Protein backbone atom coordinates (compact mmCIF):
# COMPACT_ATOMS: atom_id res chain seq x y z
CA UNK A 1 0.00 0.00 0.00
CA UNK A 2 1.37 3.41 -0.97
CA UNK A 3 0.42 6.67 0.78
CA UNK A 4 0.48 10.07 -0.76
CA UNK A 5 3.60 10.90 1.18
CA UNK A 6 5.43 8.20 -0.73
CA UNK A 7 5.89 5.78 2.15
CA UNK A 8 5.40 2.11 1.47
CA UNK A 9 3.46 0.23 4.09
CA UNK A 10 3.95 -3.45 4.47
CA UNK A 11 1.00 -5.50 5.46
CA UNK A 12 1.87 -7.45 8.56
CA UNK A 13 0.12 -8.72 11.55
CA UNK A 14 0.80 -6.01 13.98
CA UNK A 15 -1.14 -5.08 17.03
CA UNK A 16 -0.41 -1.32 16.67
CA UNK A 17 -1.86 0.49 13.68
CA UNK A 18 0.58 2.42 11.52
CA UNK A 19 0.30 6.26 11.44
CA UNK A 20 2.07 7.88 8.50
CA UNK A 21 4.37 10.82 9.09
CA UNK A 22 2.94 14.21 7.98
CA UNK A 23 5.26 16.36 5.99
CA UNK A 24 4.99 19.94 4.73
CA UNK A 25 3.82 18.78 1.34
CA UNK A 26 1.05 16.62 2.71
CA UNK A 27 -0.97 19.18 4.66
CA UNK A 28 -4.60 19.93 3.93
CA UNK A 29 -3.81 23.53 3.04
CA UNK A 30 -1.25 22.38 0.54
CA UNK A 31 -3.73 19.97 -1.03
CA UNK A 32 -6.23 22.80 -1.44
CA UNK A 33 -3.67 25.01 -3.11
CA UNK A 34 -2.61 22.26 -5.46
CA UNK A 35 -6.20 21.47 -6.36
CA UNK A 36 -6.85 25.15 -7.17
CA UNK A 37 -3.83 25.44 -9.42
CA UNK A 38 -4.86 22.50 -11.54
CA UNK A 39 -8.14 24.12 -12.49
CA UNK A 40 -7.89 26.55 -15.34
CA UNK A 41 -9.80 29.81 -15.17
CA UNK A 42 -12.28 30.20 -17.99
CA UNK A 43 -13.13 33.44 -19.71
CA UNK A 44 -16.47 35.12 -20.17
CA UNK A 45 -17.12 33.86 -23.70
CA UNK A 46 -16.09 30.30 -22.87
CA UNK A 47 -18.31 30.32 -19.80
CA UNK A 48 -21.27 31.50 -21.86
CA UNK A 49 -20.54 28.87 -24.47
CA UNK A 50 -20.34 26.08 -21.93
CA UNK A 51 -23.50 27.29 -20.24
CA UNK A 52 -25.51 26.98 -23.48
CA UNK A 53 -23.81 23.79 -24.63
CA UNK A 54 -23.99 22.10 -21.22
CA UNK A 55 -20.27 22.00 -20.38
CA UNK A 56 -18.70 21.70 -16.94
CA UNK A 57 -17.26 25.20 -16.90
CA UNK A 58 -18.45 27.62 -14.28
CA UNK A 59 -21.00 30.34 -14.89
CA UNK A 60 -19.72 33.89 -15.26
CA UNK A 61 -19.60 35.77 -12.00
CA UNK A 62 -20.49 39.40 -11.70
CA UNK A 63 -17.94 41.41 -9.77
CA UNK A 64 -19.28 42.86 -6.55
CA UNK A 65 -18.82 46.58 -6.18
CA UNK A 66 -19.24 48.01 -2.71
CA UNK A 67 -21.65 50.94 -2.46
CA UNK A 68 -22.59 53.29 0.33
CA UNK A 69 -25.75 52.50 2.25
CA UNK A 70 -28.85 54.40 1.22
CA UNK A 71 -29.80 57.34 3.38
CA UNK A 72 -33.20 57.44 4.83
CA UNK A 73 -35.40 60.48 4.25
CA UNK A 74 -35.88 61.03 7.94
CA UNK A 75 -32.15 61.53 8.46
CA UNK A 76 -32.00 64.41 5.94
CA UNK A 77 -34.68 66.47 7.61
CA UNK A 78 -33.57 68.95 10.25
CA UNK A 79 -35.23 68.53 13.56
CA UNK A 80 -36.59 71.63 15.25
CA UNK A 81 -38.08 74.93 14.11
CA UNK A 82 -36.23 77.90 12.72
CA UNK A 83 -37.59 80.09 15.51
CA UNK A 84 -35.83 77.92 18.10
CA UNK A 85 -32.34 78.58 16.73
CA UNK A 86 -29.68 80.10 18.96
CA UNK A 87 -29.14 83.64 17.66
CA UNK A 88 -25.94 84.05 19.65
CA UNK A 89 -24.26 81.51 17.37
CA UNK A 90 -25.53 83.23 14.24
CA UNK A 91 -24.23 86.58 15.45
CA UNK A 92 -20.67 85.50 14.62
CA UNK A 93 -21.56 85.37 10.94
CA UNK A 94 -24.12 88.18 10.82
CA UNK A 95 -22.17 90.75 12.83
CA UNK A 96 -18.49 89.84 13.00
CA UNK A 97 -17.51 93.38 14.09
CA UNK A 98 -20.15 94.88 16.42
CA UNK A 99 -18.14 98.05 17.09
CA UNK A 100 -17.92 98.84 13.39
CA UNK A 101 -21.68 98.34 13.12
CA UNK A 102 -22.25 100.83 15.94
CA UNK A 103 -19.91 103.37 14.34
CA UNK A 104 -21.74 103.08 11.03
CA UNK A 105 -25.16 103.51 12.69
CA UNK A 106 -23.90 106.59 14.55
CA UNK A 107 -22.53 108.04 11.30
CA UNK A 108 -25.87 107.57 9.56
CA UNK A 109 -27.74 109.13 12.49
CA UNK A 110 -25.44 112.18 12.47
CA UNK A 111 -25.91 112.54 8.74
CA UNK A 112 -29.69 112.66 9.13
CA UNK A 113 -29.73 115.39 11.81
CA UNK A 114 -27.41 117.84 10.08
CA UNK A 115 -28.67 121.39 9.53
CA UNK A 116 -30.80 121.09 12.68
CA UNK A 117 -32.70 118.16 11.25
CA UNK A 118 -33.83 120.01 8.12
CA UNK A 119 -34.13 117.80 5.05
CA UNK A 120 -32.47 119.07 1.85
CA UNK A 121 -34.73 120.13 -0.97
CA UNK A 122 -33.57 117.34 -3.30
CA UNK A 123 -34.18 114.68 -0.65
CA UNK A 124 -37.63 116.09 0.08
CA UNK A 125 -38.52 115.98 -3.61
CA UNK A 126 -37.36 112.36 -3.87
CA UNK A 127 -39.53 111.43 -0.89
CA UNK A 128 -42.72 113.15 -2.00
CA UNK A 129 -42.70 112.75 -5.80
CA UNK A 130 -42.76 109.56 -7.87
CA UNK A 131 -40.80 108.76 -10.99
CA UNK A 132 -40.04 105.79 -13.22
CA UNK A 133 -37.17 105.33 -15.69
CA UNK A 134 -37.55 102.76 -18.48
CA UNK A 135 -35.07 101.84 -21.19
CA UNK A 136 -36.09 99.95 -24.29
CA UNK A 137 -34.30 97.12 -26.06
CA UNK A 138 -31.92 97.77 -28.94
CA UNK A 139 -34.00 98.85 -31.93
CA UNK A 140 -32.62 98.35 -35.44
CA UNK A 141 -32.64 102.00 -36.45
CA UNK A 142 -30.35 105.02 -36.35
CA UNK A 143 -30.18 108.07 -34.09
CA UNK A 144 -31.36 110.35 -36.89
CA UNK A 145 -34.57 108.35 -37.28
CA UNK A 146 -35.36 107.77 -33.61
CA UNK A 147 -34.32 111.22 -32.35
CA UNK A 148 -37.27 113.15 -33.88
CA UNK A 149 -39.74 110.71 -32.33
CA UNK A 150 -38.12 111.18 -28.90
CA UNK A 151 -38.38 114.97 -29.23
CA UNK A 152 -41.99 114.62 -30.36
CA UNK A 153 -43.17 112.75 -27.26
CA UNK A 154 -41.06 114.64 -24.69
CA UNK A 155 -43.22 116.76 -22.38
CA UNK A 156 -46.51 115.16 -23.44
CA UNK A 157 -48.95 113.14 -21.41
CA UNK A 158 -48.31 109.41 -21.66
CA UNK A 159 -51.72 108.72 -23.22
CA UNK A 160 -51.29 111.55 -25.72
CA UNK A 161 -47.82 110.29 -26.67
CA UNK A 162 -49.19 106.78 -27.22
CA UNK A 163 -51.89 108.25 -29.47
CA UNK A 164 -49.27 110.20 -31.45
CA UNK A 165 -47.19 107.06 -32.06
CA UNK A 166 -50.28 105.07 -32.98
CA UNK A 167 -51.07 107.26 -35.99
CA UNK A 168 -47.48 108.09 -36.95
CA UNK A 169 -46.18 107.09 -40.38
CA UNK A 170 -42.66 106.46 -39.13
CA UNK A 171 -41.39 102.87 -39.19
CA UNK A 172 -39.78 103.18 -35.74
CA UNK A 173 -43.03 104.53 -34.24
CA UNK A 174 -44.28 100.97 -33.75
CA UNK A 175 -41.36 100.11 -31.46
CA UNK A 176 -41.74 103.42 -29.60
CA UNK A 177 -45.44 102.69 -29.09
CA UNK A 178 -44.71 99.27 -27.59
CA UNK A 179 -42.08 100.73 -25.27
CA UNK A 180 -44.40 103.51 -24.07
CA UNK A 181 -47.11 101.00 -23.20
CA UNK A 182 -44.56 98.88 -21.33
CA UNK A 183 -43.17 101.92 -19.48
CA UNK A 184 -46.66 102.97 -18.43
CA UNK A 185 -47.44 99.53 -17.01
CA UNK A 186 -44.12 99.45 -15.13
CA UNK A 187 -44.77 102.90 -13.64
CA UNK A 188 -48.23 101.89 -12.43
CA UNK A 189 -47.20 98.53 -10.95
CA UNK A 190 -43.80 99.34 -9.45
CA UNK A 191 -44.05 103.03 -8.55
CA UNK A 192 -47.81 103.30 -8.03
CA UNK A 193 -48.07 106.25 -10.40
CA UNK A 194 -51.33 107.43 -11.91
CA UNK A 195 -53.53 105.78 -9.28
CA UNK A 196 -54.49 108.87 -7.28
CA UNK A 197 -55.25 109.12 -3.59
CA UNK A 198 -57.74 106.80 -1.89
CA UNK A 199 -61.19 108.39 -1.39
CA UNK A 200 -59.88 111.76 -2.56
CA UNK A 201 -62.09 114.60 -3.73
CA UNK A 202 -61.77 115.71 -7.35
CA UNK A 203 -59.29 118.57 -7.59
CA UNK A 204 -59.89 121.75 -9.53
CA UNK A 205 -58.10 122.13 -12.88
CA UNK A 206 -54.91 124.18 -12.72
CA UNK A 207 -53.44 126.14 -15.62
CA UNK A 208 -49.65 126.25 -15.57
CA UNK A 209 -47.08 127.91 -17.79
CA UNK A 210 -44.32 125.69 -19.14
CA UNK A 211 -40.72 126.70 -19.77
CA UNK A 212 -41.50 127.23 -23.44
CA UNK A 213 -44.19 129.77 -22.52
CA UNK A 214 -47.02 127.45 -23.49
CA UNK A 215 -50.03 127.25 -21.17
CA UNK A 216 -51.34 123.84 -20.18
CA UNK A 217 -54.38 122.83 -18.17
CA UNK A 218 -53.90 120.04 -15.62
CA UNK A 219 -57.05 118.28 -14.44
CA UNK A 220 -55.54 115.50 -12.29
CA UNK A 221 -52.21 115.99 -10.45
CA UNK A 222 -51.55 112.22 -10.48
CA UNK A 223 -51.57 111.83 -14.27
CA UNK A 224 -48.38 110.51 -15.86
CA UNK A 225 -46.38 112.57 -18.32
CA UNK A 226 -43.02 112.15 -20.07
CA UNK A 227 -40.58 114.58 -18.51
CA UNK A 228 -37.54 113.45 -20.53
CA UNK A 229 -36.99 111.24 -23.56
CA UNK A 230 -33.59 110.55 -25.10
CA UNK A 231 -31.94 108.02 -27.40
CA UNK A 232 -28.87 105.86 -26.79
CA UNK A 233 -26.39 104.61 -29.38
CA UNK A 234 -25.99 100.84 -29.33
CA UNK A 235 -23.59 98.32 -30.89
CA UNK A 236 -23.32 97.97 -34.64
CA UNK A 237 -24.41 94.83 -36.43
CA UNK A 238 -22.82 92.90 -39.31
CA UNK A 239 -24.44 92.28 -42.69
CA UNK A 240 -23.26 91.43 -46.18
CA UNK A 241 -24.27 93.42 -49.27
CA UNK A 242 -23.95 91.28 -52.40
CA UNK A 243 -23.26 93.38 -55.50
CA UNK A 244 -22.65 92.65 -59.17
CA UNK A 245 -19.63 90.74 -60.51
CA UNK A 246 -19.16 88.88 -57.24
CA UNK A 247 -18.43 91.95 -55.13
CA UNK A 248 -19.51 91.86 -51.49
CA UNK A 249 -19.64 94.92 -49.25
CA UNK A 250 -19.65 94.80 -45.49
CA UNK A 251 -22.50 96.73 -43.85
CA UNK A 252 -22.71 97.98 -40.25
CA UNK A 253 -26.40 98.48 -39.38
CA UNK A 254 -26.79 100.61 -36.22
CA UNK A 255 -28.93 99.89 -33.17
CA UNK A 256 -30.54 102.48 -30.90
CA UNK A 257 -32.58 102.42 -27.70
CA UNK A 258 -35.10 104.84 -26.23
CA UNK A 259 -35.16 105.92 -22.57
CA UNK A 260 -38.12 107.75 -21.03
CA UNK A 261 -38.42 109.31 -17.57
CA UNK A 262 -42.03 109.33 -16.38
CA UNK A 263 -43.32 111.60 -13.61
CA UNK A 264 -46.67 112.78 -12.29
CA UNK A 265 -48.29 116.13 -13.03
CA UNK A 266 -47.72 117.31 -9.45
CA UNK A 267 -44.03 117.60 -10.38
CA UNK A 268 -44.91 119.94 -13.22
CA UNK A 269 -47.08 122.00 -10.86
CA UNK A 270 -44.25 122.25 -8.32
CA UNK A 271 -41.77 123.38 -10.97
CA UNK A 272 -44.22 126.06 -12.17
CA UNK A 273 -44.71 127.33 -8.61
CA UNK A 274 -40.93 127.50 -8.09
CA UNK A 275 -40.49 129.52 -11.28
CA UNK A 276 -43.26 131.91 -10.29
CA UNK A 277 -41.78 132.41 -6.80
CA UNK A 278 -38.32 133.08 -8.23
CA UNK A 279 -39.67 135.60 -10.75
CA UNK A 280 -41.60 137.38 -7.99
CA UNK A 281 -38.45 137.67 -5.85
CA UNK A 282 -36.55 139.13 -8.78
CA UNK A 283 -39.28 141.72 -9.41
CA UNK A 284 -39.29 142.74 -5.77
CA UNK A 285 -35.52 143.14 -5.74
CA UNK A 286 -35.73 145.59 -8.66
CA UNK A 287 -38.18 147.91 -6.91
CA UNK A 288 -36.67 151.31 -5.77
CA UNK A 289 -38.16 153.52 -3.08
CA UNK A 290 -36.84 157.12 -2.83
CA UNK A 291 -35.96 158.78 0.44
CA UNK A 292 -38.88 160.14 2.47
CA UNK A 293 -39.56 163.92 2.35
CA UNK A 294 -38.52 165.21 5.78
CA UNK A 295 -37.70 168.58 7.22
CA UNK A 296 -34.06 169.54 7.62
CA UNK A 297 -33.12 169.53 11.30
CA UNK A 298 -30.06 170.51 13.33
CA UNK A 299 -28.91 173.26 10.97
CA UNK A 300 -25.54 174.81 11.74
CA UNK A 301 -23.29 177.35 10.07
CA UNK A 302 -20.35 175.00 10.35
CA UNK A 303 -19.68 171.86 8.45
CA UNK A 304 -20.43 168.64 10.26
CA UNK A 305 -17.74 166.65 8.54
Provide a descriptive summary of the structure in words:
The structure is a single chain. This protein has about 300 residues and is α+β, with helices and mostly antiparallel strands. The protein has a domain at about 130-195 and about 205-285: Ribosomal protein L22/L17 (Ribosomal Protein L22, Chain A, Alpha-Beta Complex), CATH 3.90.470. Helix content is about 40%, strand content about 15%. The chain has helices at about 30-40, 45-55, 75, 85-95, 100-110, 120-130, 145-155, 160-165, 175-190, 265-285; strands at about 130-135, 205-210, 215-220, 225-235, 240, 250, 255-265. A three-stranded antiparallel sheet has the order 1-7-4. A hairpin with a 5-residue loop joins strand 2 (about 205-210) and strand 3. Helix 8 runs antiparallel to helix 9 (about 175-190). It is extended. The termini are far apart. The mean pLDDT is about 85.
Summarize the structure.
By secondary structure, the chain is an alpha+beta fold. Helix content is 38%, strand content 13%. The chain has helices at residues 28-38, 44-53, 73-76, 87-94, 98-112, 121-128, 143-153, 158-166, 173-190, 265-285; strands at 131-135, 206-209, 215-218, 224-233, 239-242, 248-251, 256-264.
Amino acid sequence: MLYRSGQLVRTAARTVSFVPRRTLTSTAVRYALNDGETKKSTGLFSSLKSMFTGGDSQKPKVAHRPSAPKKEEEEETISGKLEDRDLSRLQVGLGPDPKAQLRWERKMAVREIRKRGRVPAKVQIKRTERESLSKSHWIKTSLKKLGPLARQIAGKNIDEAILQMRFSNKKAAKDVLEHLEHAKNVAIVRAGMGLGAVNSEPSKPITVTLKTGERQKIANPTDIYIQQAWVNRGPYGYEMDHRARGQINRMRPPTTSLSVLLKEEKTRIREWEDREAKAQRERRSQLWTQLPDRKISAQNQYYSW
